[in-house]
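Standup notes, structure subgroup. Blocker cleared on the heme C input:
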Amino acid sequence: MLKMKLKGSCAILLAILAVGALASALAMAYAFRGGLSARSTPSRLEAVLARHVRQWAMPSHERARSNPIRASEEAIAEARSHFADHCALCHANDGSGETKTGRSLYPRAPDMRLPATQDLSDGELFWIIENGIPLSGMPAWSELGSEQESWKLVHFIRRLPKLSRQELLEMEALNPRGPEEWREREDEERFLRGDDQAEPGPRDDDQGRRLDHTIHH
Ligand code: HEC
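Run returned:
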């Protein structure tokens, strides 16, 4: 009798597992029907599910933490430079996520000026900055002594919807540059100082030197 009962439960369990596996396979086939690409945008259902799982997985006492740092202009200015240097590559200086990298990630870097981000608690933003978001392009930034920086970044994220033009200009100067951009800037500066006869223009070899330099020197 007991044996039969056990057999019955096993069969039910197996059936549930089989249905679950089939449903997952169908969902994956549907989600990836156009081929796997980080260029696609997650469906609404996927985005909502991912957000809920993220919220559910965050310890509630972390979510309830309040920002221990005063929102002084000094703290925000410090975080602004930090953001321009470390975060703007994906999130853009204005937090819109409109950068080449931010648009190419799956899921994409969100527009952090919108309520979806602004309605998160200070504790949630802090947790995300410190721990990153698994299975996404968002890295974890925690390291020894980083807590203060992260709380300041939380203040700066609150500022994003009302950043001034002046603030954006200051950030542009702090954005990391690739070697090509540095060379262009140096050329421009040399030209403005009058050290260079030729105008900064297109380069013709991989080293970034201009033809007249290569020939005469
Ligand atoms: C390499 C790209 C990349 C960098 C660099 C990066 N992020 Fe992110 N970030 C992302 C992506 C992608 C998401 C969205 C992940 C998701 O939706 O699951 C994200 C999400 C977030 C969120 C959650 C927003 C929301 O509404 O869900 C916060 C807050 C955040 N990032 C802050 C920062 C800060 C502060 C920095 C710099 C210290 C930073 N990020 C650097 C890619 C990046």
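Discussed briefly. The two ends are 97 Å apart (CA to CA).
Next: hand off to the docking folks.
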